[in-house]
Amino acid sequence: MAGTVRSSGRVASALARIAVRVLDAVLPPLCLSCRAPVGRQGELCAACWSGLHFLHPPWCARCGRPLPHEGPDAPLCAGCAARPPPWRCGRAALAYDEASRGMILRFKHADRIEAAPTFASWMAAAGAELLAEAELLVPVPVHRWRLLARGYNQAALLAKHLARLSGVPWSPDVLLRRRATRSQQGLSATARRANVTAAAFTVPARLRHRLEGRGLLLVDDVQTTGATLSACTRVLAAAGAARVDVLVLARVVKPEATLI
Ligand SMILES: [Zn+2]
Ligand SMILES: [Zn+2]
Fold first, then answer.
1. In 3D, which of 131, 76, 103 has the Cα closest to residue 260?
2. Which ligand number lies closest to the CA of residue 84?
3. Which domain holds residue 232?
4. Residue 45 covered by a domain
5. Strand partners, 250
6. Do you find a cis peptide bond into 255, omega within 30 degrees of 0?
7. N or C: fewer beta carbons within 10 Å in the chain?
8. What residues does the ion ligand 2 have nearby, CB within 5 Å?
9. CB atoms within 10 A of CB 189
10. Mean pLDDT for each consecutive 10-residue tract of the chain (260 residues)?
11. 2 Cα to the center of ligand 2, angstroms
12. What is the whole-number distance in angstroms between the Cα of residue 35 and the centre of ligand 1?
């Protein structure tokens, strides 16, 4: 059943890609964010580009949150000092904010999958150290019903393009979502944690050998509270992964003071 659903997803995603190519032939390429005409597919117009907030060091050694000053060798943000995430090291290319939200939601829900190579290249730059050590890229899965409805998993598309850029293999089926969780939008942090628990994810027993003793890099589009990434990390660690790092396209960056 899962195989059938995955192949339906692949067919739908292949059709979506063909549709994009057909559209390209008759329409000019559009800005990934505001849809103004641009020179090439997968680009942003100058105004949208200048509005994005790319994250860069100094950042928290554990979660990649930008820090105001250079600190010691492995500086931690207040959030990680108080309550470290289960993963070893996390990085994000962009702040998830007013400037990036629309562009990412269109990628996620509106078939703007031609953005994937561009987004993956930003992630490869932000996560270069993690990719250098990674042995397998694992996208955060969506439930098969959602995959069927949407036709693609945006995290898997990002992982696929990251694999192409870095040479690290990726595997879309070692981690599965077995419970369709409610959409996270509009839920409080506590409700989000309750909504996504480790029980929502599973590693099929026949595929455990692929991740046992290996360094994994978990890939997703957006990190808000980190509840989904935490649940996935716990399941992968319990299945025998040597370590789990996290690389996302964009993350919510709250001021440090609100975390304490
Ligand atoms: Zn634009
Ligand atoms: Zn941190």
1. 76
2. 2
3. 2-14+50-259
4. no
5. 94, 222
6. no
7. N
8. 60, 62-63, 65, 77, 80
9. 11
10. 53 70 70 89 91 92 86 82 94 95 89 90 97 98 84 93 97 87 62 68 94 97 92 96 98 65
11. 36
12. 6
Element (DSSP H or E) covering residue 93: strand 90-95
Note the pLDDT of residue 197: 73
CA 143-62-249 angle, 5° bins: 45
Q: Using CA atoms, how far apart are residues 57 and 70, in angstroms rounded to an integer?
A: 8
For residue 218, list its beta bridge partners. Answer: 138, 246
Calculate ∠ Cα 9-13-14, nearest 5°.
Answer: 115
Q: How many residues does the chain have?
A: 260
Residue 136 lies in a domain: yes
CA 41 – ligand 1 centroid, Å: 12
In a domain, 37, yes or no: no
Q: How far are the Cα atoms of 100, 203, 227 from residue 233, in angstroms, in the given order? A: 26, 11, 10
Tokens of 239: 């299945």
User: Is the distance from CB of 253 to CB of 224 less than 8 angstroms?
Assistant: no
| Whether the Cβ atoms of residue 176 and residue 138 lie closer than 8 Å to each other | no
Q: In terms of DSSP bridges, do strands 90-95 and 243-251 run parallel, antiparallel, or are they unpaired?
A: parallel
Residues 68 and 78: their CA atoms lie apart, in Å, by 12
Residue 3: the pLDDT is: 46
Q: How far is the CA of 95 from the centre of ligand 1 (A)?
A: 17
CATH at 189: 3.40.50
Specify burial of residue 78 (Cβ count, 10 A radius: 0-12, 13-18, 19+): middle
The answer as to whether 34 is a domain residue is: no
How distant, in Å, are the alpha carbons of 94, 117, 252 from that of 51?
11, 20, 16
Give the closest ligand to the alpha carbon of residue 47: 1
